Amino acid sequence: MPMTSRIIATVAGLALSATGVACTQSMPVTDELKEKWSDKTLFDIDTKTLEGKPLKLSEWKGKAVLVVNVASKCGFTGQYEGLEKLSDQWKDKGLVVVGIPCNDFGGQEPGSASTIRQFCTSRFAVEFPMLEKQSTKPGKDQSPIFEYLGTRTGKLPGWNFCKYLVYPDGKTIEFYDSRTAPDGKAFESKVKAAVAKASVSPAGDASKDPEKQASSS
Question: Which of 74, 102, 120, 162 is catalytic?
Answer without folding.
Answer: 74
